[in-house]
Each structure stands twice: as structure tokens, then as C-alpha cells.
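Lab notebook, design round three. We kept the backbone fixed and only want residue identities now. Task for the bench partner: fill in a sequence for the structure below.
Input C-alpha cells:
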């Protein structure tokens, strides 16, 4: 039994000053995620569902067919202001909104602020649909905790039946310290997943390695088309969460016949873990398969610390030199702007270090391997419902042997 006071406290999500929160969670409606348990370190674990848009008709609900990506980004800019969106279930048209407020400034495509006669900014406020008392009562129903047994790996039949082919269900935490950000879902993983579903033929029947997989959402999507996906990260608690997410979506991956293998891969170590006494270790057969058949390596939104970025690129160099085949690497990153006291200005230090590392990798020459780097324009369709902002980037690296 859970203490009623403890259960009530768990319903309140507290964001501390030393924690970070993914924008994906901020934009996920409360009814879409459910607190299910506490993890090994006492963090609340939530179960969220993310819709997959498999067909073109569904995709048109998110992106207007035939429009250029630039036009789509203009619409996304308008939609970022939640105070001007229409009620849930109705689609809002950015052009109609601009016409109503006479702020359209084509062809420059800028959105001007609304000013009154004195030049002061007019703030459009959301109408109060409920009284404070009613709003308080509604907020109490946003989360309904259901505490599960810690470490339970098997799902009951009812949970399996509830898994639908167009939903990805992911367990994750929210508002974590920086060292636990892998337990959250980030937009970079969605961008990478979009590209995978768009380029199904490229990933079909392949052996894929994901580095820094976090909750495993990109690996799970990849397994709908690939043959084998080695979903890797570090930390027993994180990998256990990732393994559970694989189990939650086994019906989804089964349709494509793919297999997800959750394994530990520490970028700060030269060798893979083969200790049979440890969880998420590698067998000799799996290591042989990894190096013999891997043709794609990918990583999403893992470039937030310069030391870890350096370690990742060293890992890429080491692994690609041991592969028997030419390998294509896909790296997804969100360019984050931060004000720093050191520069007294808004900078993108982590992103800049990532770009320097890409440049160094491309210039690198040895007797065995060369690396060809190129950006991929994010003009491909969205297959997941999220906010694709212009700061999201996807990079392609071809690691080819020198003949």
C-alpha cells in the first residue's frame, strides 16, 4: 500500500532550479501521460504516448501538403504562442489568424507585434473558461498515479491489448538533473525518427547501432524497418527504463520484424562490456554481429557537454574502424541558445563545439578511413506529432574505407 500522503505528494510535479525539462514534455497534454512508478533513485516515472502518422492523410493534419518548409516554420512560429490556439480538437490556421489581426507582412514573412494607439504592446490573453475553483478541481485530475512493482519487466495482457499500431508508448522522467537528461524525451529523437520513417528503404533489413539512446524511442522506431538495432547507453537505471520501453512497444516492432537489443556502451571506455555477471552486457556473438553487419550508426540530441561530445566522436572513430562495411552515421542536434556570463552574450557553445568536431572529423585522414560530412535539410514529412523548430538539425556522415 502507498501512503495517501506520499501518493498526494507524487501528484505534484516540482521543478527545481537545478533541473532541466524537455520541451516535448511541456507540449505534451496532461491527459497523454500517466505517472506509473518510482525508479531506483526515487524519481517519478511517467508513461506518455506519441502518435505515429503513418499515412499521408494523417500527415496533412500536421503539415500542409505542398508547402515549403519555410512556410511551415512560419506557421509553427505562430502556434508557439499557446494563448492564441483554438480549443483542443480544432485546427488553427495561422493565415486566418494573421488576417484577423492585420499583422501579415508578406513577402518578408515577418509577424509584427500588436500595438495600441500609444505604441504600447497589447497582450492577447487566454479567455477564462473556468472559475478558479473549477480550475483547481480540474487540475487535481490531470495525473492519476498507479504504482507498479519496481523492476517489473513483464506486461499483463490488458496492457498489451491497449498498445495500438499508431502509438509509441514511452516511460520517462521529467525535470531531471543534467546527468539524467537521457531519461527524458527530446525533439532531436523525433527528428531522427521522422527521417528513418521517410527513408524506410535505406534502413530496411539493416543492422543499426544507436549511441546515447536514452529512453530508446528512436531505436524502437528504427526497429519497425531495420533487422537488428543495438540500443546503447550507460547506467543500469536508464537501460532498465529503455528495456521496459522496448517491451511496451513489442507489438509495434513485431510488425516490421525488427529486434531491439539494449546494451551498455560507455563512450569513456575503449572496450565493450562482456562481463556475464553484469546486466546489459555483450556476448561474443553480439560483438561479432555488430562489427560484421552494422551499416548505420545514429545518435540524437546528445551534444550538450563538450567532454561527452569529444568522447562520442572518439567512439565513432573507433567503432567505424572496426566495421567490415561502409557505414553511414546520422546525428541529430538541437541548436540551443543560452546567455553566458563569460561572453555576456547569447551563444551556442555546445552546438559550436559539435560543429568544430564535425569539421575536425572531415579533415581527418589516415590510411584506412575517410569521413564525408553533409547536412540533411529537414524538409521531409513529420511522422510524429511534435513541434519541429528551425533549430533542429540532422547531419549525415559517411565513413568509407580508403581503397
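Proposed sequence:
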Amino acid at each position: 500500500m502507498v501512503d495517501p500522503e506520499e501518493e498526494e505528494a507524487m501528484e505534484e510535479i516540482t521543478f527545481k532550479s537545478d533541473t532541466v525539462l524537455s520541451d516535448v514534455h511541456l507540449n505534451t497534454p496532461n491527459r497523454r501521460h500517466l505517472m506509473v512508478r518510482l525508479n531506483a533513485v526515487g524519481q517519478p516515472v511517467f508513461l506518455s504516448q506519441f502518435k505515429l502518422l503513418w499515412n499521408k492523410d494523417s500527415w496533412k493534419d500536421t503539415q500542409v501538403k505542398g508547402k515549403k518548409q519555410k512556410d511551415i516554420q512560419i506557421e509553427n512560429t505562430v502556434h508557439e504562442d499557446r494563448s492564441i490556439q483554438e480549443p483542443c480538437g480544432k485546427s488553427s490556421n495561422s493565415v486566418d489568424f494573421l488576417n484577423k489581426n492585420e499583422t501579415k507582412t508578406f513577402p518578408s514573412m515577418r509577424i509584427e507585434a500588436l500595438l495600441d494607439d500609444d505604441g504600447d504592446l497589447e497582450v492577447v490573453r487566454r479567455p477564462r473558461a473556468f472559475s478558479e475553483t473549477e480550475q483547481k478541481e480540474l487540475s487535481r485530475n490531470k495525473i492519476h498515479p498507479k504504482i507498479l512493482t519496481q523492476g517489473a519487466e513483464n506486461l499483463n495482457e490488458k496492457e498489451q491489448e491497449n498498445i495500438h499500431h499508431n502509438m509509441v508508448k514511452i516511460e520517462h522522467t521529467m525535470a531531471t538533473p543534467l546527468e539524467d537528461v537521457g531519461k527524458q524525451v527530446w525533439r532531436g529523437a523525433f527528428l531522427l525518427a521522422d527521417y528513418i520513417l521517410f527513408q524506410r528503404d535505406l534502413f530496411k533489413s539493416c543492422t543499426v547501432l544507436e549511441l546515447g539512446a536514452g529512453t530508446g524511442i528512436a531505436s524502437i522506431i528504427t526497429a519497425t524497418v531495420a533487422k537488428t538495432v543495438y540500443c546503447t547507453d550507460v547506467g543500469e537505471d536508464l537501460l532498465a527504463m529503455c528495456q521496459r520501453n522496448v517491451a511496451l512497444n513489442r507489438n509495434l516492432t513485431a510488425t516490421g520484424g525488427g529486434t531491439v537489443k539494449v546494451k551498455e556502451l560507455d563512450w569513456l571506455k575503449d572496450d565493450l562490456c562482456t562481463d556475464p555477471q553484469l546486466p546489459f552486457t555483450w556476448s561474443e556473438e553480439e560483438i561479432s554481429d555488430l562489427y560484421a553487419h552494422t551499416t548505420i550508426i545514429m545518435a540524437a540530441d546528445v551534444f550538450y557537454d563538450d567532454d561527452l561530445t569529444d568522447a562520442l566522436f572518439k567512439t565513432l572513430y573507433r567503432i567505424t574502424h572496426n566495421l567490415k562495411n561502409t557505414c553511414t552515421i546520422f546525428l541529430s542536434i538541437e541548436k540551443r541558445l543560452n546567455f553566458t556570463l563569460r561572453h555576456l552574450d547569447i551563444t551556442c557553445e555546445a552546438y559550436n563545439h559539435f560543429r568544430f568536431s564535425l569539421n575536425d572529423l572531415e579533415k581527418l585522414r589516415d590510411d584506412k578511413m575517410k569521413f564525408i560530412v553533409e547536412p540533411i535539410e529537414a524538409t521531409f514529412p513529420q511522422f510524429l506529432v511534435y513541434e519541429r523548430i528551425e533549430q533542429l538539425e540532422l547531419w549525415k556522415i559517411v565513413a568509407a574505407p580508403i581503397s
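Keep this in mind before ordering anything: The CA atoms of residues 199 and 380 lie 9 Å apart.
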